[in-house]
Model the fold of this input.
Amino acid sequence: MKTVLEAKNLNKYFHDPVEFHVLKNINMTVQSGEFVAIVGPSGSGKSTLLYVLSSLDREYEGEVIFGDVELKTLTNQNLANLRNKSIGFIFQFHYLLADFTALDNVMLPGLKLGEIPQNELEEKAYQKLELLGIADQAVKKVNRLSGGQQQRVSIARALINEPSIIFCDEPTGNLDSKNALMVFDILKNLTREVDQTILMVTHDDSFSSETDRQIQLLDGKILYQ
Done:
């Protein structure tokens, strides 16, 4: 299997109001097509680890290697290009543009990337919405969609540029149990059907137990993986 992401001797400190060692000598890999959950109690460093691995946080010691590139070697512009082209994000809150349609929201990362004509991108966005069972909602403004539908739009948006990996931070945390299960099943099916690599922070044991592998954190250290 191909290694998509690797952390070597990763350490992270917070310095305000006092110094706190939040991630301690993290070594881990994620392989292509894996669905991996980062689990652990509140305050164990799960989301901090996800932000560092996903390039959203660049203040760390050690190495984060994406494919064959160490992220610290990239300029801000090159990192932004890499993030837009090769990394997808799904958060607890969907961060959609409320006055835009579902289709427009899904297209935005592709428009920013600018690699295919707009008519082709629109067709691709429709395909992603269809994959997620909400193509019939494409021309509705997202503020008229349910919470579960909005999260499916955010998943389609994360998929639009065919990313190497999708990072998920508590993607079901803001949903009721029915919609949470639906969103989790969608993520699991993406790894099975289109070989999508996913790294997900979750506090829900019933979901994490259904992933390919769990990385257990406690006090900033990996207990097992």
Observations:
- The beta strands are 3-14, 20-31, 35-39, 61-66, 69-70, 87-91, 165-169, 197-201, 213-218, 221-224.
